[in-house]
Structures are given as C-alpha cells and as structure tokens.
C-alpha cells in the first residue's frame, strides 16, 4: 500500500486586481506610502494637542497603564526578566502578575536609549507618549501592506483613512496608553496580512507568529487563534494549494508559543498551569493539533475535499478533547476561581470585560452598528466578486470579522479588533458609491451626497446610532462619567514624605500610589493577587467591626481613601453601612485616626490603631 502523494504547491502568482472604470478614481497610488504616513501624522498631531496637559505628570487614564510603567521601572531597576510579580503589593507575600515582558520591551528600550541624554523622568514621558503612537504607525502601514495586493493601493489607502476615524481602535493607541491592547490590534493586523498573502507558505509563517505573540501578550488571543484556524481550514477545503498556509500556521503557532513561554517564564514556571496566560493547559492541545494535522495530511493527502477535511477534523477534535480532559478549572475561564464577592463586585464592575447586554444602550449601539455595517459590506463584496480566488479572500475577511464580532458581543473591549476587520467592508461600500456621486452634474447634489456618504465611515455610523439610541432611551449619547480624579502629583509628593510604609487603599488607586510614591499597597485590580484584592474589597464592604480584623491582618499602617473615586461609589451603593460608606459620611470608627496632612485635598489619610480592642484582664498571682 502506497501513501497518497501530496501534490506540490503551485507556483505563487498574485491574482490580478480587476478594476472597473468606476474603481480607477481611487487607485492612482501616487506617493501612497507618504499618504499613509500623513494620515498617521495627522492622528499624532491631534493626539498631542488633545493630551498635551497630561504629559508632564504622566496623567494615565487607566490604572493598568500606571502599573505597566511600574513594572518597567522594576525591570530596569534589576528585577528578573522571569519575575513580573509586584513585590510592593500585599507585602510580604507580593502580588503575582500575569503580564508579559514582551510589552515592557519597547518602553524599557526607549527609556534606556533616552535616559543618558534626557534623564529618567523625561525619558519615561517620551517613551509613554511615543510608544503607543509608534504602535499605531505599525498598524497603519501593516494594514496597508496587508490590503495593497488584494485591493490595490487606492482602496488600501481608503481603508487606512477609515481606520484613523475608528474611535474603538484609536482609543487604545492614544499617548500614555502603554498597556497591551494596542499590541493586540497590531497582531490582528498580522493575522489579516498572513491570511491575504499571495504565498501560502509566507502567509502561514506570518499568521502563526502573529497569533503566538498575541496569545503570549494576552490570553485574549486564544479565541482568535480558533477563528483564524477555522477560516484556514475552510480555505484548505476549498483549495488544495492552501494546505501550506494551514500547516505552517498551526506549526508556528504551537512551536512559537512554546519558545515564547520558555523564553519569558523559564523552565520551572513554564510547567505551572495558569488559566490567564499561555501555559501547559493551552500549549499541549496546540502541540497535539499541529502534530496530528501534519501526520494526517501526509497520510490522507490533498486529492479531495474529504481527504483535506479529515485530518483537520481529527486534529481539532483531539485538541478539544485534550483540553476538556486536562483543563480543570480553566474550563470555566480565568476569573471563575475568584472569591464570589470579589467576582461580583470587582470583575462585574469592569464594564469593558462584560458582554454587550450588560452595557448602556448607547455603548452597545456604538459597538454593534459599525461592525454590522462592515460585515454586510464584506458579504456584498463577496457576492459581487467574479474571480473565485478573490471571492475566497473576501470570504476569509468576512470569517475573521464575524468571529471577532461574536467575541466583542461577549467582551466589550474586543470591539477594537471587530471594527478593524469590519472597516474593510465599510471601505468597499464607500468606494462603490462614490463614483456615482462624483458623476452627478449638479454640484449641490454632489456636495450633499458626499456629506451623506461620510455617515458611512466608522465615526459617522457611531455618532449617528449613538444619537438615535440616546433619543430613544432618553439617555444622553455620551453619559457623564463619575469623577475619578484622585491623588494629584502634588498630593503624591506630600504622601511620599512619610516614612516608607504600607497603605490600605482602594484597588484602583494602588497603581498610582506605586508609581508616584515609595509606599506599598495591599491590593490592585489584578486577579492573581487573590489575597490582597479580596482583603481590600471585603474590608471596605464590611462594617467597621468586620473590616478591622481584615485590615489588621495586613502590614498596613494607614488607610487612604478618595470619596470621588468610582470604586468608592460602588462600595457605598453595595454596602450602605460598610466601612467605605461610614467614612464617606464622616462616621470614623475609633480605631482610625484622621491625619490632617497639608496639601491633601482629594484623598484622606487615617492612621490605624493596631492595639487590641479589648485587652485581656490580668489577675494578681495567688500566693
């Protein structure tokens, strides 16, 4: 019995881009890379003007950005490459973290480069301002490169023009937004580029490396690995020549994940199971998937659709069964192991991690409408395409967009990737409609219709549907946010004059305290520090009598609160008689002594009386 032969991949040729007369208006392509750069620079200038006042004081909008800089500082100060724990959180135990060192590298590298000339403070400011904007440049030029051969230079440029009007994307790439979300978008661009690459082998390498990096940066990349794999499997079923793309994708994804895990965690930590990051529980199914797929395709060959689908089905089933058999608590997700009170109060209070049905109607409309419009555009583009190869490309983008949209429905913060893929459909609709508008003889008609066409851009759709949703629900399109400005830089300097100590503070205030003072804190909003996170939440929700033993079980010497912090408002709503609510009313328990430090305006500091409440009575010895 002879093994079925595997046909050699055909010579790679770039399918011609069929341009109709109406299409040529946008495909001039003169100095197109300069135009991409101008679009990026326009964004940069707007961001610089908008955020200028925040630069000097490193006014981060999100506590995770402040914590990221704290992690970079610790790394530059000598903390091990393999150790990302925050040792100033919940001393003496420390606060375990699940973050990747890869995201620290560009920030740390720029600080090291600039520090000899600018000094540490200015080097940090420049790094935190420029790294997100350089990430945006990578996304813009990467997106253009991904679409250029498929759509032509002009339409690829139009897609970039729409990208820089997409608020869900740009908000993750603004100055000082140094956390990992921008890099996730960049990896999504890499997936798209590899999917559309005319050479299946190179495309597989690009896709595999992109998803391996994405899953290492954040475990949020796992569903996108499955989505991309499913699209590649369907491409391979349709065309035997797509086999190398699928095989290289799975091999590089599995092998790259193993290498990255070992390179950033070391041998010992690489053997520990974690549900919130790449670990053996996820790596083993990936390795099994790649091995079975490779062996199965060599045995079955590529001769028929059934022969191409059989190895994929067996490999996917085996990998899924392995995960189901070994996943344990990870099957419920990385947060289900939290204390129920912590899960309900903290995790369900983080709106960006909740599904769309738990969001405000205006927010849900902004997420759904632009993505659905783009998905419809992609579907129409696929139906209108006459060339079979190009139709497969359109359908592949549609598959990525549909899968990403499903993820964004379940997790709000995933909407940036959903909108990234969907805007290609927006572009196609606009490119098809505009030539007819430009051909009209009456200038006023052209002007009015062109203005109406701008409503089909991501920002136009978002503004329109949010206004409609606000009118229907009676709520403003942009509901006012609770005041969250606490601990100004001047106040932090005043606190830093105290002898180094441990502060019992709200979890959202923790990263700012670590960044701007020498003091330790008990908890931050990072779930691996289960002990410290739970103590802070239980103490502020509990009555003063319940809170005192919790606080005394820590090394904290002071309690620090900010009544205007959104987190404190939630404590008051959930527990009207809890410690946070009592302090907010001025009903200070006797074991807390207010300290009137000059310069403290937004925060209040209390010294903890650590003496026993009821000291035991002593009796005279009997003679």
Would you mind describing this structure in some detail?
With 623 residues, this protein is mainly α. It has a domain at 489-608. It is 61% helix and 3% strand. It has helices at 32-55, 63-76, 101-118, 120-151, 153-163, 167-170, 181-196, 200-217, 222-238, 243-270, 280-300, 305-326, 340-345, 361-384, 388-410, 415-438, 443-453, 458-473, 489-496, 510-516, 530-541, 544-552, 566-574, 579-584, and strands at residues 502-504, 520-521, 558-561, 592-595, 604-608. The chain has a 5-stranded mixed β-sheet with strand order 2-1-3-5-4, with helices on one face. Strand 1, helix 20 and strand 2 (520-521) form a beta-alpha-beta unit. Helix 2 (63-76) crosses helix 3 (101-118). The model is unreliable at 1-16, 18-23, 478-483 and 615-623 (pLDDT under 50).
Q: Roughly what is the average pLDDT, rounded to an integer?
A: 88
Largest sheet descriptor? 5 strands, mixed
Helix amount: 55-70%
Percent strand equals: under 5%
Low-confidence stretches: 1-16, 18-23, 478-483, 615-623
Topology pattern, helix = H, strand = E: HHHHHHHHHHHHHHHHHHHEHEHHEHHEE
Strand order of the largest sheet: 2-1-3-5-4
Shape descriptor reads globular
Question: Structural class, please?
Answer: mainly alpha
């Amino acid at each position: 019995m002879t093994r079925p032969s595997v046909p050699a991949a055909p010579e790679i040729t770039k399918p011609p881009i069929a341009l109709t007369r109406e299409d040529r208006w946008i495909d001039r392509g003169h100095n197109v890379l300069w135009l991409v750069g101008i679009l990026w620079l326009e964004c940069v200038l707007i961001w610089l003007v908008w955020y200028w006042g925040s630069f000097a004081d490193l006014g981060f909008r999100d506590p995770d950005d402040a914590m990221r800089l704290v992690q970079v500082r610790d790394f530059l100060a000598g903390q091990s490459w393999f150790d990302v724990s925050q040792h100033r959180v919940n001393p003496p135990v420390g606060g375990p973290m699940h973050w990747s060192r890869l995201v620290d590298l560009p920030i740390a590298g720029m600080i090291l480069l600039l520090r000899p000339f600018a000094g540490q403070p200015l080097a940090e400011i420049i790094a935190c301002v420029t790294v997100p904007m350089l990430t945006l440049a990578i996304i813009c030029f990467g997106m253009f490169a991904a679409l250029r051969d498929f759509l032509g230079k002009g339409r690829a440029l139009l897609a970039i023009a729409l990208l820089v009007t997409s608020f869900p994307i740009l908000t993750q790439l603004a100055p000082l937004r140094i956390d990992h979300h921008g890099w996730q978008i960049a990896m999504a661009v890499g997936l798209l580029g590899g999917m559309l690459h005319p050479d299946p082998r190179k495309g597989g390498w690009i896709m595999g490396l992109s998803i391996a990096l994405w899953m290492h940066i954040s475990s949020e990349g796992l569903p996108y690995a499955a989505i991309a794999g499913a699209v590649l499997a369907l491409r391979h079923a349709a065309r035997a020549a797509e086999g190398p793309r699928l095989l290289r994708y799975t091999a590089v994804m599995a092998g790259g994940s193993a290498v990255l895990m070992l390179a950033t965690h070391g041998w010992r930590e690489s053997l520990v199971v974690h549900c919130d990051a790449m670990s053996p529980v996820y790596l083993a199914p990936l390795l099994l998937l790649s091995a079975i797929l490779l062996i199965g395709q060599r045995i079955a060959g590529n001769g028929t659709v059934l022969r191409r689908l059989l190895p994929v089905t067996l490999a996917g089933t085996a990998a899924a069964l392995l995960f189901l058999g070994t996943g344990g608590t990870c099957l419920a997700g990385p947060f289900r192991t939290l204390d129920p009170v912590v899960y309900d109060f903290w995790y369900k209070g983080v709106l960006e991690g909740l599904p769309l049905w738990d969001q405000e109607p205006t927010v849900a409309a902004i997420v759904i409408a632009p993505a659905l419009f783009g998905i419809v555009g992609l579907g129409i583009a696929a139906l209108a395409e006459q060339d079979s190869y190009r139709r497969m490309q359109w359908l592949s983008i549609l598959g990525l967009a549909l899968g990403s949209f499903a993820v964004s429905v379940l997790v709000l913060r995933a909407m940036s990737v959903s909108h990234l893929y969907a805007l290609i459909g927006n572009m196609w609709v606009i490119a098809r409609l505009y030539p007819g508008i430009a051909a009209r003889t009456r200038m006023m008609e052209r002007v009015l219709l062109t203005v109406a066409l701008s409503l089909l851009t991501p920002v136009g759709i978002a503004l329109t549907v949010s206004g409609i949703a606000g009118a229907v629900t009676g709520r403003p399109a942009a509901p006012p946010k609770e005041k969250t400005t606490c601990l100004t830089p001047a106040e932090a300097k005043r606190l830093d004059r105290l002898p180094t100590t441990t502060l019992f503070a709200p979890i959202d205030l923790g990263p700012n305290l670590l960044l701007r003072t020498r003091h330790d804190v008990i908890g931050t909003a990072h779930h691996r520090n289960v002990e410290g996170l739970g103590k802070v939440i239980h103490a502020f929700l509990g009555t003063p009598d319940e809170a005192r033993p919790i606080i005394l079980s820590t090394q904290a010497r002071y309690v620090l609160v900010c009544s205007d912090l959104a987190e404190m408002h939630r404590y008051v709503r959930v527990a009207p008689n809890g410690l946070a609510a009592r302090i907010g009313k001025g009903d200070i328990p006797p074991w807390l002594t207010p300290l009137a430090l000059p310069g403290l305006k937004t925060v209040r500091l209390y010294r903890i009386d650590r003496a026993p409440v009821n000291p035991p009575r002593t009796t005279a010895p009997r003679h």
